[in-house]
Specification:
By secondary structure, the protein is an alpha+beta fold. The chain has eight helices and 19 strands.
Length: 309
C-alpha cells in the first residue's frame, strides 16, 4: 500500500518576493510549511544575495514547473566599478582592482554587443555541473576549471540609473541560462575596467512579476490563522503560452484515466493555428485544468494529469 503523503493537498503557485540572504531551497521550505503542503518546488534558483521573483509551486502545480524553467526573465542589477571578485558579486574575495570608471555613455555604447544570441561562459561560482559536481563547490576548493561557453539570449539591455561614478544600474530581458554576473564580467572587460554585481533583483519570470508578488513575511503572517488560499495563483499560471481546449465531462474523465481523446476537425484546425513545436495542449473542464496533452493525428494524448478538485 502506498504511503500517504504528510500535509494538505494544496495546489497552486506563490509568486514570492524573495528577501536577501535567503536561499531558494530555504524559501520553498518556509512556504511549504506555511501552507502545510504535501509537495513544493521552485522554478529557477535565485542566489541568496539576490531579491525578487521566485515562483514557488505547491501540490499539482509542481507538474508545470518545467514549463516555467524556460520562461524569459527580467533582472535589475547594479554594477560596482573598480573591484573584481572571485564570484563577481559582493560576497567573493577581491581578485583585482582598477581606477577605470566607465561613463554612462560608454556603458550604453557597449551594451548592443551583448544583445541577441551571444556566447557566454558561466562564472566558476555557478551551479553548472563539472564531472558530476557543482562548479561553485569546486571553485571553493580552489579547483581550476575551464567551463565551456553556452549560447544564451539577451532580448534587451538598458541603463536605468547612475548613482555615482562607482555604480551604474542596468536592466536586462533575457532567456534561460543567462548569468548576470557573467554579463558584468564580460562588459567590464569590454570597457577595460574591473567590476562586480553589488545588487541584483529579479523583476519577472514569465508571467510572474512584481504586480502579483507577495513577501514571505506576509504569507507566514496570514498562515497564523488559516492557510491563505486566496493568495495562491492557479496551477495553469505557468502555462500562459500553451493553447487551451475545453473538454466535455466524458473526455475529462478519459484524460484523467490516462486515455486519449479524439478531436473534432474544427478543434484540430483551431489548435494547429496556435500550437508550438512541442504540440502541447492544456485540456480544461470548467474552471479546472484536467491534463497537459500532446496532439497527434487528431487525438490528444495525456502526458500530465492533474487532480485539482
Amino acid at each position: 500500500m502506498a504511503r500517504r503523503r504528510k500535509g494538505d493537498a494544496v495546489s497552486g503557485w506563490i509568486c514570492l518576493d524573495k528577501p536577501r540572504d535567503l536561499g531558494s531551497t530555504q524559501a520553498v521550505g518556509r512556504v511549504r510549511r506555511a501552507f502545510n503542503a504535501q509537495k513544493a518546488g521552485h522554478a529557477g534558483t535565485l542566489d541568496p544575495l539576490a531579491t525578487g521573483i521566485l515562483p514557488i509551486a505547491l501540490g499539482e502545480a509542481t507538474k508545470t514547473v518545467p514549463f516555467l524553467m524556460d520562461a524569459d526573465k527580467t533582472y535589475r542589477f547594479t554594477i560596482e566599478w573598480g573591484v573584481e571578485t572571485a564570484s563577481f558579486d559582493r560576497e567573493g574575495a577581491v581578485t583585482a582592482t582598477s581606477a577605470v570608471r566607465p561613463t554612462l555613455e560608454a556603458v550604453r555604447a557597449a551594451l548592443p554587443s551583448f544583445i541577441g544570441q551571444i556566447e557566454q561562459v558561466p562564472p566558476n561560482y555557478s551551479a553548472v555541473k563539472v564531472a558530476g559536481e557543482r562548479a561553485y563547490d569546486l571553485a571553493r576548493d580552489g579547483v581550476a576549471m575551464d567551463l565551456k561557453a553556452r549560447t544564451v539570449t539577451i532580448h534587451d539591455a538598458r541603463c536605468v540609473a547612475q548613482v555615482d561614478a562607482d555604480h551604474v544600474t542596468l536592466e536586462i530581458d533575457c532567456g534561460k541560462g543567462t548569468y548576470v554576473r557573467a554579463l558584468v564580467r564580460d562588459l567590464s572587460v569590454a570597457l577595460g575596467a574591473r567590476a562586480h554585481v553589488s545588487d541584483l533583483r529579479r523583476l519577472r519570470v514569465g508571467g510572474f512579476c512584481e504586480a502579483n508578488a507577495i513577501t514571505l513575511e506576509h504569507v507566514e503572517s496570514l498562515c497564523h490563522t488559516a492557510p491563505p488560499l486566496e493568495v495562491l495563483l492557479p496551477v495553469e499560471t505557468a502555462l500562459d503560452d500553451i493553447p487551451e481546449l475545453a473538454v466535455t465531462d466524458e473526455d475529462a474523465f478519459r484524460l484523467t484515466q490516462g486515455r486519449s481523446i479524439v478531436l473534432l476537425p474544427r478543434q484540430v484546425e483551431t489548435l494547429r493555428a496556435r500550437l508550438t513545436a512541442s504540440r502541447i495542449v492544456s485540456a480544461r473542464h470548467g474552471a479546472n485544468i484536467v491534463a497537459l496533452c500532446e496532439m497527434r493525428a487528431g487525438r490528444l494524448n495525456p502526458t500530465r494529469v492533474f487532480h485539482t478538485n
